[in-house]
Amino acid sequence: MTAMDEPLDTPLDAAPNGPADIAVGEATERPAPGVLTEAGLEALLFVAERPLSRREIATLAGVDAATVDERLGDLEVSLHDRGIRLLSAGDRIELATAPDVGALIARYVGADAVRLSPAGLETLAIVAYRQPVTRAAVERIRGVDSDHTLRSLLHRRLVVELGRSNAPGRPILYGTAFEFLERFGLESLDDLPPLDADVAARLGEEGGVPLLPLDADDDLGLVPMGGGADGEASGG
Q: What mean pLDDT is predicted for residues 4-13?
């Protein structure tokens, strides 16, 4: 009997054939696709370094959009009386601390450093209620130049650039970011306090009707968590 004819100590069906077999073996240890548990969703949102869209979650879990929405609903109920909440802005989802623990969290992160001036609050409120909105529209409502204030809000990540308008010159469109929801203790933009009828009329709709400037004493109803407005220069 030659060396090639000698019997093998290891059965052929049990012998690895190389890296490809090892890779397959490792893959079988991973969670099977097509399953999204409430615990899995919570863990995924916890480790994510940015808000995730429903489509991303569905793709990662190998499930359909209806399953993602169902698990999100389950998780929202489970978190209702806990220190973490689900935040949603459009199709994006993330975890954030609950509003009722805001004072404690503010002491830890030093919320005094991110308080806003009256000009900042006014500009932020206009963006929140009118988004997507251009800088020109903000300035028509306020009646003053708002470039500095908008840049400050962008730097603080309370406002983000959403894209560009189709208007001549294609001006930038601004909207609020997740940091805005967290700062003001909101779970979504639907939780914004309703506007007074007079203030809503002053905000108006862009189009043929000129936008009227807000009076200095108009209250847009936004109160940041952990304190009032101070610290930022009040210039436009």
A: 45
**Are domains 38-97 and 115-203 of this chain identical in fold?**
yes
Domain parsing of the chain, residue ranges: 38-97, 115-203
Q: Stretch 73-78: mean pLDDT, rounded?
A: 94
Residue range 76-101, pLDDT digits in tens: 999 988 999 898 887 889 998 888 88
Chain mean pLDDT for the chain: 75
**Per CATH, domain 38-97 is 1.10.10.10:** yes
Report strand pairing: 159-164 vs 92-97: unpaired
Q: Model confidence over 165-186: pLDDT tens digits? A: 888 889 999 999 888 887 787 8
115-203 — its CATH code?
A: 1.10.10.10
